[in-house]
Design a protein that fits this description.
The protein has a single domain, classed as Rossmann fold (3-Layer(aba) Sandwich). By secondary structure, the protein is α/β, with parallel strands linked by helices. The longest helix has 21 residues, at 169-189. Mean pLDDT is 91; it is low at 214-219. Helix 1 crosses helix 5 (169-189), helix 2 (77-88) packs across helix 3 and helix 5 (169-189) runs antiparallel to helix 6. Strands 2-3-4-1-5-7-6 form a 7-stranded mixed β-sheet, with helices on both faces. The protein is built from 7 helices and 7 strands.
Length: 219
């Protein structure tokens, strides 16, 4: 029995909002992952007007990986992604979108080969510009406000545009490291096998954070 390998990755896209105002916000965790990867590889981002984004490159030849941070603001992310795919002659299956997910707890990841927007404006824009949902994405959990559903709806914008708390930082560090390891794993093993690890991942510090935030039981 033969197994169909995933197409090789040639483009990584981190979703976020441009500008200092949004640096370090939960919505920009996709940017954070790419900035860490570029820094570790000694690469730097440069503005590419034709791509409506910042671009860095790591690796060479057939293993070259392009890192794109759209500068269109989240709601128009798809415009930058479409431009990059067209410019480099790539298929949507050859990219991976790194995106925050409020429906996942901080400390968890979810790798999927396709799927809907799930209420995320960046994914919604990408789907619209690509004309379909068939592109890989790695959802990075940022958690949701601990409120009832109606209050949560009102507080969503403030939550995603807020910054990670000092207590969140150890979890965030472990998550970003796992994202970088996961990218390498996807390149080596393909989406399905990499997903077996990434989808089971729980940041060790997340359990400690949960224990700290849980109310103590009264005797």
């Amino acid at each position: 029995m033969t197994t169909t390998a995933s197409p090789p990755l040639h483009l990584l896209v981190g979703l976020g909002n441009p500008g200092d105002k949004y640096t370090g916000t939960r919505h920009n965790v996709g940017f954070m992952a790419l900035e860490r990867l570029a820094s570790r590889s000694g690469a730097s981002f440069r503005n590419q007007a034709k791509l409506h984004g910042l671009l860095a490159e790591i690796g060479q030849g057939s293993s070259r990986l392009r890192l794109l941070m759209p500068q269109t603001y989240m709601n128009e992310s798809g415009r930058s992604i479409r431009a990059a795919l067209d410019w480099y002659g790539l298929e949507a299956s050859q990219m991976l979108v790194l995106v925050d997910d409020m429906d996942l707890p901080l400390g968890r990841l979810r790798l999927r080969a396709s799927g809907g927007a799930g209420g995320h404006n960046g994914l919604r824009s990408t789907i619209a510009h690509l004309g379909g949902e068939a592109f890989p994405r790695l959802r990075i959990g940022i958690g949701a406000p601990a409120l009832n559903p109606e209050e949560r709806k009102r507080r969503t914008v403030g939550h995603v545009l807020g910054r990670f708390s000092p207590a969140d930082q150890p979890v965030l560090e472990q998550v970003l490291e796992e994202v970088l390891d996961g990218i390498t794993l996807i390149q080596r093993l393909g989406l399905e096998r990499a997903g077996n690890r990434l989808n089971a991942f729980v940041a060790p510090a997340a359990a400690a954070l949960q224990d700290t935030s849980s109310p103590s039981m009264a005797p």
